[in-house]
């Protein structure tokens, strides 16, 4: 089984991790704190060091649905890389969280200045988006598809 592509640092070229970490600062969130809200503008992202974060989607007429739980090493936030830079999922600290926080505009500038690093970041973030989309799809099918409807083609 192939590991889920949720770790940003593992995909970076030599020296890329160190260059990216130049833009990091420590951040923390207590359990229960909303970190992001679906539809709001994003100007930062995080790599989780400790704790866990739930990702959720708003469903009209229902409570938000948790579609994935993130933990150590996972990237929290990908909407910072793609215009219009708005959150596609909400996020809440499930437990106390310590993370590395990155200024999105500065990281986008780094990506523009260093094409190799920029491509590596963009490809890994795209892999993470695809993974999260599949998780969200599976979760929503689990919750809302008619029982016994079978897998989709």
UniProtKB/TrEMBL annotation:
PROSITE patterns the record matches: CNMP_BINDING_3 (PS50042)
Cross-referenced SMART domains: cNMP
CDD domains found in the cross-reference section: CAP_ED (cd00038)
Transmembrane spans: none
UniProt-listed InterPro entries: cNMP-bd_dom, cNMP-bd_dom_sf, Env_Response_Regulators, RmlC-like_jellyroll
Cyclic nucleotide-binding domain location: 8-77
PANTHER family: CRP FAMILY TRANSCRIPTIONAL REGULATORY PROTEIN, HTH-TYPE TRANSCRIPTIONAL REGULATOR ARCR
Protein name: Cyclic nucleotide-binding domain-containing protein
Organism of this sequence: Streptomyces taklimakanensis
Lineage, uppermost ranks: Bacteria, Bacillati, Actinomycetota, Actinomycetes, Kitasatosporales
């Amino acid at each position: 089984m192939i590991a889920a592509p949720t770790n940003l640092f593992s995909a970076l070229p030599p020296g890329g991790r160190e260059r990216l970490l130049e833009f990091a600062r420590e951040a923390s969130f207590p359990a229960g704190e909303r970190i992001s809200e679906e539809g709001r503008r994003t100007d930062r992202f995080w790599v989780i060091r400790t704790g866990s974060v739930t990702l959720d989607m708003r469903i009209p007429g229902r409570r938000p649905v948790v579609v994935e739980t993130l933990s150590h090493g996972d990237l929290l936030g990908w909407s910072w890389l793609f215009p219009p830079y708005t959150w596609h999922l909400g996020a809440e600290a499930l437990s106390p969280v310590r993370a590395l926080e990155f200024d999105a505009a500065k990281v986008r500038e780094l990506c523009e200045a260093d094409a190799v690093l920029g491509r590596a970041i963009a490809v890994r973030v795209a892999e993470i988006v695809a993974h999260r989309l599949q998780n969200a799809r599976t979760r929503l099918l689990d919750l809302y598809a008619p029982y016994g409807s079978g897998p989709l083609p």
